[in-house]
Design a protein that fits this description.
It is globular, with a radius of gyration of 21 Å. The chain folds into 2 domains: 91 residues, 2-Layer Sandwich (Gyrase A, domain 2); 211 residues, Beta Barrel (Cyclophilin). By secondary structure, the protein is an alpha+beta fold. The longest helix is centred in the first third of the chain and has 16 residues. The chain has 8 helices and 17 strands. The model has no long low-confidence stretch (mean pLDDT 96).
Length: 324
């Protein structure tokens, strides 16, 4: 019996401020390009997005599309127009041409969004889960997820958690799972909040709900099932009908590389904004602002000790807390 061929086509070691690269065959029309080790490191995502931007600028005949993930990218191509070896050579050339990570600048936007913490629809989703799926879920005690997040992270009260959400911009690493669903990570590591997901998942979540799973925030683009712990609600980030001008050219508000900053509003104010979005009276606050990876690395080094102390405190609290 003959052995099975490895899907790994090429692998390079980290060098010159660039991460290790692994190229895998993914079917007969795609390559999966993986960067670095399997760990949560935002600099890997920065490199993915830099490569994605370079691919868009230096189009290759036969390249159909690229889909960036957190530390990987799926590249689809037409094998009748470009060979796998030609595509690998093109990718290698792009990788080599990129500057070291501290010199990378990524096209980015800063988007300000309102958030209403502990809103009625998030509580309704938790209450429905208790009634119909799991009444003993430790993350749903008190018919909300916020108190569990507070306990799991060792915060003294809800306001301390809310401050962490508001204190930093959140980096949109990739879009996926549902159309328009952003996976966002705090840029300032001092304000990282971590929590396990539901077990099992919910069957219903409101549009615009803001959830947290692991260290990742998400805004639910449509009513859907979901497994992230709910902490509040924001505005629509997806609209196929284009009822607000921000969606006229693209039904997805957010894209990889965007930074989201939340500001706090009441639920009454948020629902009024919902109506204004649908009536095309609300204007989303969006500012083009390139992201300097060097500045991020300097921030990370500057706050390292404080972030590590916060991590230790968080892990001590999580060890004392039941997991769903």
């Amino acid at each position: 019996m003959s052995g099975t061929a490895s899907p790994i086509l090429e692998r390079t070691d980290p060098t010159g401020g660039h991460p290790a690269v692994t190229l895998r065959q993914a079917g007969d029309r795609s390559l999966l390009v993986e960067y670095g080790d399997m760990e949560l490191d935002l600099t890997l995502n920065f490199f993915v997005l830099a490569v994605d931007a370079a691919l868009a600028d230096q189009r290759l005949e036969g390249l159909i599309e690229s889909a960036p993930g957190f530390r990987s990218m799926l590249v689809r191509y037409d094998p009748t127009r470009v060979s796998t070896s030609e595509l690998i050579a093109h990718l290698t050339k792009l990788h080599d041409s990129l500057p070291a990570e501290q010199e990378i600048e990524i096209p980015s936007r800063v988007i300000e969004l309102p958030i209403a913490f502990d809103d009625s629809q998030s509580r309704a989703a938790v209450e429905r889960y208790i009634r119909s799926i799991r009444k003993d879920a430790p993350n749903c005690e008190g018919a909300n997820n916020i108190d569990y997040i507070v306990r799991y992270n060792g915060f003294t009260e809800r306001e301390e958690f809310y401050d962490a959400v508001l204190a930093t911009a959140h980096w949109t690493g990739f879009i996926g799972f549902f159309p328009g669903l952003p996976f966002m990570f705090p840029i300032d590591p001092r304000h990282t909040v971590v929590v396990p997901k539901y077990n099992p998942t919910r069957t219903w979540t409101a549009e615009g709900a803001v959830g947290l799973g692991g260290p990742c925030y998400a805004i639910y683009p449509v009513e859907s099932a979901g497994g992230y712990q709910l902490l509040g609600r924001s505005l629509p980030v997806y609209d196929l009908r284009g009822r607000n001008r921000v969606f006229k050219d693209n039904p997805l508000l957010l894209r990889p590389g965007d930074r989201v900053r939340f500001h706090r509003v009441s639920e009454e104010e948020l629902m009024s904004m919902f109506d204004d979005v649908r009536g095309d009276r609300y204007r989303y606050r969006i500012e083009e602002q390139p992201f300097d990876v060097g500045d991020y690395l300097a921030l990370r080094d500057r706050v390292h000790e404080e972030a590590e102390e916060r991590r230790r405190h968080r892990e001590e609290a999580s060890a004392r807390t039941d997991v769903p």
